[in-house]
Design a protein that fits this description.
The complex is a heterodimer. Chain A has helices at residues 24-31, 87-94, 104-117, 123-130, 140-154, and strands spanning 3-9, 12-18, 50-53, 56-59, 72-74. By secondary structure, chain A is an alpha+beta fold. Chain A folds into two domains: 3-78, Roll (Ubiquitin-like (UB roll)); 87-154, Orthogonal Bundle (DNA polymerase, domain 1). Chain B is of the alpha+beta class. The chains are: A alpha+beta, B alpha+beta. The structure holds FE2/S2 (inorganic) cluster (2 copies).
Amino acid sequence: MTDTISFKLNGKPTRLNLDGNRLLLWVLRTDLGLTGPKYGCGQGHCGCCTVLVNNVALRSCLVAVSSVKDKDVVTIEGLEQDGKLHPVQKAFMAHDALQCGFCIPGQVMHAVSLLNKNPQPTREQIVQGMNNNFCRCGAHTRIIDAIQSAATEMQGGPAQ
Amino acid sequence: MNTNDYLALNFKDIKDYSDLYPQSRRDFFKRLGGGIIVCVVMSEFLAAQAQEERRFRGFGRGLPSDFNAFLRIDENGHVTGYTGKIEMGQGPITSLPQMLADELDTPLGTVDMVMGDTDLCPWDMGTFGSMTTRMFGPALQAAAAEAKAVLLELAAESLKVPQAQLAAKDGAIFDKEKPERRVTYGQLTQGKKIERHIEGKPPLKDPSQFTAVGQPELHRDGRAKVTGAAHYAGDIRLPGMLYAKILRPPAHDAKLKSMDTAPAKKIPGVQVVQDKDYQGKDLIAVFHEFPDVAENALEQIKADYDVPEARVDDKNIFDHLLSVAPPAHVLASDGDLEAGRKLAVKTVEATYLDGYVAHSPMETHTALARIEDGKATVWASTQNPFGAQGEIARALGFPAEKVRVITPFVGGGFGGKTYNQQAVEAAQLAKIVGKPVQVMWSREEEFFYDTFQPAAIVKISSGVDASGKTVFWDYDVYYAGERGAQQFYTVPNHRTSGHGRGWQGSEHPFHTGAWRAPGNNTNTFARESHIDQMAAVAGVDPVEFRLNNLSDARMVRVLKTAAETFGWTPAKAPSQRGYGVACGIDAGTYVAAIAEVAVDAKTGAVQVKRVACAQDMGLVINPEGAKIQMEGCITMGMGYALTEEIHFKGRKVLDTNYDTYEIPRYSWVPKMDTVILDAKDKPPQGGGEPAIVVMGAVIANAIHDATGVRLCQLPMTPDRVKAAIQKT
Ligand code: FES
Ligand code: FES
């Protein structure tokens, strides 16, 4: 069964003719060549596959591509604007909040979504908000610090 | 016992394929353009390490006879180090250039690494055992020192100044008397092709002259990793490639009885292959140009299996393992145990248990294989690209030089990616279908084929005299392996025995293997829990008890540092404060940790509130990177300590995803204070593993301090903690 699905992907209008039941993660990774979102578990546990749909974090391994029809999808590849990294990306780098890096696209996207909803989270809110994004390498503590300082920067506070 | 014994790594189970490599330097260097190329052969300088590596691997030949490291300075003055080691988050892509930059007096930004490509890099046995910095680093430094000697010769000619009058700085050589007379490395190497082969020798620089080494450096790959630009094996795309999904049995050793592939074949674009692998086992796979369609097609295959009767499970496994345990071999002994027993006023006997633990890197085993003109190229998530190359060559019946393994970024390994089944599968399937094939294991496959940390048992009997000195220590470890078994306390009468062949016993229901700091997590859990039990019966504060029984100055220093950092005040356990301490040695590094926990007596849940950890790892190349590794170890270590344990029935693995197998999360993360002691005078030691070894014991001891309850089995799940509390 072929459906036509139009949506915005990283700012660009996109139109696909495909089976709308296919999972968004694999359509992004294969059909569209955006390999930033990763497969970690395929069941919604780990968050490696996180993308933004209408500015809200979504686990792309769980949803059919048809569900993003007419919506605005952003992957890690689309976060950089005019050659400028998003403050969350910059903060991850500045805090060295990564090791193998495999979970990082999902962590960054989830953090962006978190700050969209709550621009000035407490440490505890960050911990709770990020709690279902897994990192096997144990970069958590630096990721928490990075999100805190990104929040500060986005509020117009001191840049890192 | 000398310190060398602590370094025992036991890599016996890593297959050696070095005999398959007739690869000559010519092959390598033909591909390179001009400049200076220096190769280093390990010699006396590295003999100790080389011997050590050989010993661990149990092969007559652990190191290649050709060369171990090389580097090139090209005609732009750019420096490239080539290594078969790989980057999986532990940071060599950042730290090795620091070593090179210092030795060569060139800006860090002009130094790059090429890693884990079997066509470009010298043979290497793999990335494990925290060996990259401590063993490979010096070889690379020696190459750099030689390259600089060549540059100085060239500069003396070009500037017509005696060498003694020259100095190097920022990628250029200048006349000390007239610094404006200078020539850059790029100018010197222009139009030349100079090859040097040297025997490894110690670098000439004194650590005090280092400017890049010892400086905190941010991960070089940070930008690539925060933008999604970093490519892992599963992110490589080739024209015409297919995604394969392989039919798996429900349990290891289950026999396929019948199968119907017709429904899968009906899906448009799906191809089904029914073949045998090179060992004669079934290889049944579905292919599609999209992985999700291949996955759906696989689900359509109805297969029936004969599953062998389940005899062991996660409950009775320890009885089973003890009943089939191989005889003891003594690893270390001294004095007279019987005499020691007589001196004891208090004795403690205990048995410690540890379950199977999964590596569970976030990136599952993945590979993409292409076979073209009789040559296989395989992009693989692997910790030992040359091992993978050998395995693939055997499976395909190709000579090794017809197999190239390229290692992109690796999404975590922890020992699990020394096992390259997925790369062999991808290569065989690519050969069968005649197109590039990607194999990316599902999380379920990852759990099923993982080479778990083995379930293990440690039995200890020991005693103290009236002055609180340990007078005897009788230690038996089953199946964990020897790493970390030898203890470092001063005990006049002791014996340490091992049972089983390290991590790879055939007694287990599935594959087992090296898991971050293999063996040492189990051994340190047992030893440090037991030391605490002795402190308790002696009625002495556990830090003081350790100091009373230690003479090793390095350990004393790290323990005192951890205690100070934490703000330890002496008290007998259980003090109800929830404080615990543990010490360990791994990969040449000394580590001590102190933790504070809170235990919910009703649920048995344990929250680790803070951890102070001190480490003496010799000369530190990248202190920031080393701290990150310590934080990673502490965080990951809470998993095996508190929740991680594989559930199984017979040879069926019951955990298939993270719904039942719980790994550490943000809400677990304690406040961490990490301290790296200054020990510039000592050679660099391992950093990727040591701090993880203390996590089981430090939490067990803190739980005891909080509740008076002693947990002797890992993981210390809420159920186990609750049951133990209710028993008292
Ligand atoms: S891959 Fe989607 S949540 Fe794990
Ligand atoms: S950085 Fe490796 S999984 Fe998070």
